[in-house]
Specification:
heterodimer, A: six-stranded parallel β-sheet, five-stranded parallel β-sheet, 19 strands, B: alpha/beta, two-stranded antiparallel sheet, 20% strand, globular, disordered C terminus
C-alpha cells in the first residue's frame, strides 16, 4: 500500500485534489501525494491572515513547551525514518542521526533563543551601556509567513517550521512534490497535534489551524509563488540569487513584508601545506559525499596547496571506497543513492566542461569523484558527490581562485569554508580575506552547529520585526 | 421601488407551487397561443410548422412531441437577425427594448431581442423565487460582476432593481483585485458573478482567490448575505465553501441568452434546478423527441411563451420567437416531490453538449 501524503489545511489532513505517484530510489511506486485544490488554498490563506492575532496572544513560553513536547512524538519509531530514505535516497543512518540532532535542538530552543538574542524572551531584549540598560530591542511577530522548501532533502522542514512557530506566525509551507516530499512536514504537524492533545490548553488550540502544508504540483518557481501569494506576507525561499530575483519580481504587486533567502551553498575547503593530510582527506571526502553530496554545506571545491596536493589525492584514493553511492539502507553507507535525474545532470554538465572522464561509478551512479580543474575551468555546485580540485602556489593565488569561483557562480559569499592547517594565524588570515558566512578550522564543512548563525543569520531574527524602545 | 397595483402574472410564485396537472394545463395554454402567434406572425415558423396544425396540439406532451424543435444552426442560417421577430416588430424596430448577442463560443453569435414587456415577464421569472431576499430588513447593494455586453449584465441589474436594491456595475476593465476593493468600498452585500471563470466576467472563484490573497476577508457572511450566479453549474465544493463563509443565500440561475431564465437552484438541494415554467416552457427530450421520464437524461429544449400587453395582461412573447429551441445541454430530469415545497420538476447534472444534430441522429461519435 502506497504512503499517502495529503495536505494539511485548517487543522485537517486533506485528501482532495489530483494525485501524483512518487517513486522510491529504486524506481518503484512508493507514495501518493495530493495536490491542493484552489478552494483549499483559499482556506489556508484565510487562516493565516485571520489567525495572526490569536497566535500573537500565545505566550512564547507556551510555544516553546508545545515544540519541546512534540519532539516526543516526532519520529519516535524507527520505521518512521524509512520513507525519507526511500524517497530521497539519503542514507538511513544519516537520516536518523540528523533528525535526532535536530530534535535535540528543538527540545532546547530556549538555548537557541538565548544565542540569538542574549535572552529567551525576545519581546524585550535589553541594550546596555556601561552596565546600564539604555533601551530595549522589541521583536514582534511578522504576520503570515509563506515558505517554499527545497526538493533535495527534508531536513530543512523542522528547522524552518519550528522557527516560524517561535516567531508566533501562522504559515503556509510548500514542501517538495518530487524527490523530497511533505512527509517530514506532516510528521511534525502530527507531532504538534499530539503535543496539543497532551497539554490540553484551550489557548493553544488555534495552533492546529495556523499550520498549513500545501502541495503544489509545479516545478516552475514563479507559478508556485503566484499560487501561494498573500498580501503583506513574509516569504522564506530556498534558492539561488537568481531564484530570489525571480520570486521578488513575481511578488511585486502584493507588498511582501520580507523575502528571506535560504540555500546559499558552494561550500569550499582549503588544505594548506601544514595540514594534517589524513584528517583533511577524511573530513573533506565526508563533506563532499555525505548524504549524496547534495547539501548546501557539502564541500564542492577543494583548494590544495601545491606541496600537499599529491599526498592529499593519494589519501583520497586510499579511502575512496568508503564514499561509494550505494543502497541507502546499508548500514555502513554514508553516501546513499544518487537519483538518476541528478546523475544525468552531472554527467551532462561535466561533459560540456570535458571533465566527465573523471567521474567514478558511471553510467549507473556516481561515486565520490575528484575533478581536476585548470585555472580557467569553471566549476559549480553539483547535486552529487563531485569534488572540484584546484591547486595554488601561494596565498595570493588562493584568494584569487576563491574570488573567481564566487564571481563565476554569481555569489558575493559562499556558505562555509573549511580550512585545514595547524597554524591558527593562517585560519585568521583566510577568514579575513575570504567571503564566507562561516569558517571552520580542521572540520568538515558539513558539520552544522544549530546554535550558531546559518548563512550569516538567525532565521528567527530575520523573520521578526525589530523595534528599538528608548525609555 | 413603486409597489405594483396588481402583481404581474409571471411574478407570482403560485406557478411554482400549484398542482402539477394544473400547471401543465396552464403552460399548454400559453404554449399553444405562442405556437399560433409564431405561425401567423413569423414567416420562418410558418414554414417550419407547415405540417403541424394547432388542432394537433391537445396536451402538454403534444407541445414537445408534435412541435418541431429548433437548433442554433438554423438560426445562424437565417438571412437576417430580424427574421425571428413578429411582423409588428419587424416593421417597428424601435419597439425593441433590448438586444444582446449570444456568446458565439460555438460559432457565429446570434441576436436576441426583447420587448419591454417581454423583459418584464423575464424579470418575473428572475425574481419570484427570491423569497428569502424579500424578507430582508436591509438595503440590497448588489455588485454585478457580469460583463454588461452579455445579457447577464442588464438582466441582473434589473432583477436587483425589481427587488428594491441597487446594482453596482463592475468598473470597466478592472482587475479582480480592483473589483473586490470596489465591492468593499460600496459595501455591497450581494454579489453577482459566474461561479467559475468564463469570458462573461470575473468569477466568484477568482474573487475568492483574490479576497484570500489580499486578506480582506470581505466575501463572508459578515458583509455579504447573498450570491447570484449562473453560466455554469455551481460545484458542490464551491457551494460548501460559500456556506462555510457564512453566505446565507445562494441562487444559481440556469438559462441562456436565448431563453432566460429557465431554472433556478433549489434552496433545499443546491444541485437541483427548479424549472421556471411560466414565461418559458422547458422540456427534456430523448432522441425520439419524447419527454424523458423521472431520473432519465435528455436534451434541453426551451422557448419563450409569455409576455404582457401594455396593460399587464398576459399575451404571447413578442420580440424574438423561440420555441422548442435546443439550448445545447444535456440534463437529468427529476419530477419527484421536492422538500422545498415547489411542485415544479427539476433538472440536475447539466452537461454542455456540442453538435446537437449529431447527438440526435445517434451517429458515430467515436470512431
Amino acid at each position: 500500500m502506497l504512503l499517502k501524503l495529503p495536505n494539511y489545511i485548517n487543522g485537517e489532513f486533506k485528501f482532495s485534489g489530483e494525485t501524483k505517484t512518487l517513486h522510491n530510489y529504486k524506481g518503484e511506486e512508493y507514495a501518493v501525494i495530493y495536490n491542493t485544490p484552489p478552494l483549499e488554498l483559499r482556506i489556508a490563506k484565510r487562516n493565516i491572515t485571520r489567525l495572526q492575532e490569536h497566535m500573537r496572544q500565545i505566550p512564547l513560553k507556551k510555544i516553546l513547551k508545545v515544540i519541546a513536547t512534540s519532539m516526543k512524538y516526532y519520529f519516535e519509531k524507527e520505521s518512521e525514518f524509512v520513507p525519507l530514505s526511500q524517497l530521497t535516497g539519503s542514507p538511513l543512518s544519516y537520516v536518523k542521526q540528523s533528525i535526532r540532532e535536530m530534535k535535540e535542538w528543538a527540545k532546547n530552543l530556549d538555548e537557541y533563543l538565548f544565542m540569538c538574542f542574549g535572552v529567551v524572551d525576545y519581546k524585550n531584549v535589553p541594550i546596555t551601556y556601561k552596565d546600564e540598560v539604555i533601551a530595549y530591542e522589541k521583536y514582534l511577530p511578522p504576520g503570515p509567513v509563506v515558505g517554499v522548501l527545497p526538493r533535495n532533502s527534508e531536513a530543512e522542514s523542522l528547522y524552518l517550521l519550528v522557527q516560524i512557530l517561535l516567531a508566533q506566525s501562522p504559515f503556509i509551507i510548500k514542501p517538495p512534490s518530487s524527490l523530497g516530499s511533505s512527509y517530514s512536514s506532516l510528521e511534525l504537524v502530527k507531532a504538534i497535534n499530539k503535543a496539543l492533545d497532551e497539554l490540553k490548553d484551550p489557548q493553544l488550540e488555534v495552533m492546529r489551524k495556523t499550520m498549513n502544508i500545501i502541495n503544489v504540483f509545479s516545478n516552475e518557481q514563479t507559478e508556485i509563488i503566484k499560487k501561494l501569494e498573500v498580501e503583506g506576507a513574509s516569504y522564506v525561499v530556498f534558492g539561488s540569487n537568481k531564484t530570489i530575483e525571480r520570486v521578488s519580481h513575481s511578488l511585486e504587486g502584493s507588498n511582501p513584508k520580507n523575502i528571506i533567502k535560504m540555500g546559499t551553498g558552494l561550500s569550499m575547503s582549503i588544505v594548506l601545506e601544514d595540514a594534517d593530510i589524513s584528517l583533511a582527506a577524511r573530513e573533506i571526502c565526508t563533506s563532499a559525499a555525505l548524504d549524496r553530496g547534495n547539501d548546501c554545506v557539502s564541500t564542492n571545491i577543494v583548494y590544495l596547496a601545491s606541496p600537499s596536493k599529491e599526498k592529499f589525492l593519494a589519501e583520497v584514493e586510499k579511502i575512496s571506497s568508503r564514499y561509494e553511492s550505494k543502497d541507502p539502507f546499508l548500514e555502513d553507507n554514508m553516501v546513499g543513492h544518487i537519483h538518476h535525474e541528478d546523475r544525468d545532470k552531472i554527467i551532462a554538465r561535466l561533459s560540456t566542461l570535458n571533465k566527465n572522464h573523471h567521474l567514478k561509478g558511471i553510467p549507473h551512479t556516481i561515486h565520490l569523484s575528484t575533478i581536476h580543474l585548470e585555472e580557467h575551468d569553471h566549476f559549480e555546485e553539483f547535486p552529487g558527490p563531485v569534488l572540484g580540485v584546484r591547486s595554488f602556489e601561494d596565498k595570493e593565488e588562493l584568494f584569487s581562485l576563491l574570488l573567481k569561483d564566487l564571481k563565476n557562480n554569481n555569489m558575493d559569499r559562499n556558505l562555509v569554508t573549511s580550512v585545514f592547517t595547524k597554524d591558527k594565524k593562517h585560519f585568521e588570515e583566510i577568514s579575513t580575506k575570504m567571503n564566507s558566512y562561516t569558517f571552520k578550522l580542521n572540520k568538515g564543512s558539513q558539520k552544522m552547529n544549530f546554535l550558531l548563525e546559518h548563512q550569516g543569520m538567525y532565521l528567527i531574527k530575520e523573520l521578526l520585526d525589530r523595534r528599538i524602545l528608548e525609555q | 421601488m413603486e409597489k405594483e397595483e396588481k402583481e404581474l402574472y409571471f411574478d407570482n410564485d403560485a406557478l411554482d407551487y400549484m398542482d402539477t396537472e394544473l400547471r401543465k394545463k396552464t403552460i399548454f395554454s400559453l404554449f399553444k397561443k405562442q405556437f399560433i402567434h409564431n405561425k401567423n406572425e413569423v414567416d420562418f415558423y410558418a414554414k417550419l410548422y407547415q405540417n403541424t396544425s394547432e388542432d394537433q396540439l391537445a396536451s402538454f406532451e403534444d407541445c414537445i412531441e408534435k412541435v418541431p424543435t429548433l437548433t442554433k444552426d438554423q438560426i445562424r442560417n437565417l438571412n437576417s437577425p430580424y427574421n425571428l421577430l413578429g411582423k409588428e416588430f419587424r416593421k417597428n424596430l424601435n419597439r425593441i427594448h433590448l438586444h444582446r448577442g449570444t456568446g458565439g463560443t460555438t460559432g457565429e453569435p446570434t441576436s436576441m431581442f426583447f420587448s419591454r414587456n417581454d423583459w418584464e415577464a423575464v424579470l418575473g421569472g428572475m425574481t419570484r423565487s427570491l423569497t428569502e431576499l424579500r424578507s430582508l430588513q436591509e438595503d440590497i447593494v448588489a455588485f454585478n460582476g457580469y460583463n454588461q455586453g452579455h445579457i447577464s449584465g442588464p438582466i441582473f441589474d434589473d432583477t436587483i432593481r425589481r427587488i428594491g436594491g441597487i446594482p453596482i456595475t463592475r468598473n470597466f476593465g478592472c482587475s479582480d483585485e480592483q473589483a473586490l476593493r470596489q465591492m468593499k468600498k460600496h459595501r455591497c452585500n450581494l454579489i453577482i458573478a459566474p461561479p467559475i471563470t468564463t469570458h462573461k466576467g470575473g468569477s466568484i472563484e477568482s474573487l475568492l482567490d483574490v479576497d484570500a490573497k489580499l486578506g480582506l476577508n470581505y466575501i463572508t457572511g459578515e458583509h455579504v448575505h447573498t450570491i447570484f450566479c449562473s453560466s455554469t453549474q455551481l460545484t458542490k465544493e464551491l457551494f460548501e465553501e460559500l456556506k462555510d463563509l457564512g453566505i446565507r443565500n445562494i441562487y444559481n440561475y440556469y438559462g441562456s441568452t436565448d431563453v432566460l431564465p429557465t431554472a433556478i437552484s433549489c434552496q433545499h438541494n443546491p444541485s437541483d434546478l427548479h424549472i421556471l415554467f411560466g414565461h418559458i416552457a422547458l422540456f427534456v427530450i430523448n432522441e425520439k423527441q419524447e419527454h424523458v421520464k423521472n431520473g432519465e437524461r435528455g436534451l434541453v429544449v426551451a422557448g419563450r411563451i409569455g409576455s404582457y400587453d401594455d396593460k399587464g395582461v398576459v399575451i404571447p412573447n413578442q420580440a424574438t420567437q423561440l420555441l422548442n429551441f435546443h439550448v445545447g445541454d444535456e440534463v437529468t430530469f427529476i419530477d419527484t416531490p421536492c422538500p422545498c415545497g415547489r411542485t415544479t420538476p427539476r433538472i440536475r447534472r447539466v452537461k454542455r453538449v456540442h453538435h446537437v444534430q449529431d447527438k440526435l441522429e445517434g451517429g458515430c461519435e467515436h470512431w
